[in-house]
Amino acid sequence: MISLHIGIDDTDSPRKGCTTYIAALLVEKLAKINAKFLDYPNLVRLNPNVPWKTRGNGALCLRIQLEEGLLEEVKEFTIDTVEEYADLEYEGTDPGIVFFQGERIPKEIRMFARNTIQGLVKLEDAISLIKKFRAEAFGFKKCRGIIGALASIGETLENDHTYEIIAYRIPENYGKPRQLDEESVRRMDRETKPYTFNNVDPETGRILITPRGPDPILYGIRGETPEIVKKAHEMVRALEPIERWVIFRTNHGTDAHLRKVESISEVRPYHPVIVKGTVSKPPRIIPRRHVIFTIKDETGEVDCAAYEPTGSLRKIARRLMVGDLVEVYGGVRPPSEKNPLTINLEKLKILRLAPKISYMNPLCPKCGKRMKSMGAGKGFRCEKCGFRSKELEKVAVEEERDLREGIYISDPRSERHLTKPLQRYGMEKKHAKVRLIDGWFGFGKT
Ligand code: ZN
Prior knowledge:
By secondary structure, the protein is of the alpha+beta class. Helices cover 20% and strands 30% of the residues. It contains 8 helices and 23 strands. A hairpin with a 3-residue loop joins strand 12 and strand 13 (290-297). Helix 3 crosses helix 5 and helix 6 (182-192) packs antiparallel against helix 7 (226-235). The mean pLDDT is 92. Zinc ion (ZN) is lined by residues 364, 366-367, 369, 382, 384-385, 387. Zinc ion binds at residues 364, 366-367, 369, 382, 384-385, 387.
């Protein structure tokens, strides 16, 4: 028996397809030839902040054991399936497949995966690793998908991870409105919380498990264990046929894309970041209701943007004041002619609020009532008892802030696949203990 890791990426386009669907088809074919699955199919979201991403920027890896004699057959039907289902006519869809044989994934490939999730990598880097470790790569067109394919092999999800069950539509229904009993989704959400997440937007009540596009996905439910997402799937009542479903192990909801840097000078375009700073310019609202504020430290200054769809996060950002100490989380947009380098907020942690001081008229020393000003430099007069004074001065009063210290996250409807939702805080996994349930691997037809 040999161990084989199959990575696939960049097969879909905004108008057609889904790499997870190709993986779902392959899972079935592999099961038919009695391949032994070493893991759930891994669905690895890559850096959402790259300039050339397709839709979800998700790559897939299948990890199996099989008889050596079956190796060529597996490679052949993998390539055939990608060729058949990828949107090869679409400019910007450049599929890639990587096969890697071996029990353990070399550290360099794991590091490459981390850089693909948190930063920018080049196709040449992927190719040289593929040569060095005698992996095999197949690329279509510009071959860019080879990067994600190798990264999905290298991301072994040994730390925090989650699961997603995806149910697929029958092809006749692609492009038509998705038919689900919404009440069954709300009930599933109530009964499986907090072990599933992002099912329903709490503010608008909108169902979030269904995507919008013409792709084959009917819905996807995310959660902490394979059992809970399977159970949640059984609770949802679909009002259209489900062709098949698969459970994926993923880096969704883990913040895997964010890298903490020590200072603002280390903030680089396209590298999602966590960085601390003090608010140096007050929040300003720009057209389309986005909120921009500026933070600084001793190394530099950077703009932060809370866009309208981030909902409550934008409302929080608007209440910041110069002097507040914050930690910001988000993707980084390069400077343009109009705008400087900008962090697009996904989260905001308020570490320390600056005191809000306002100056008020003094209290009357005789009767305690707040005095009236008689005009600049002319002193104060008490309306109640008539006391006057030229010596008294305005007094500094600390006002209460309409903001609390703590972490704020964009509303689920605008959350990125990778953003860790509030309810997952404290549930992070430290190890990957993958239990494949006997006789049931995690895919099916009902
Ligand atoms: Zn008085």
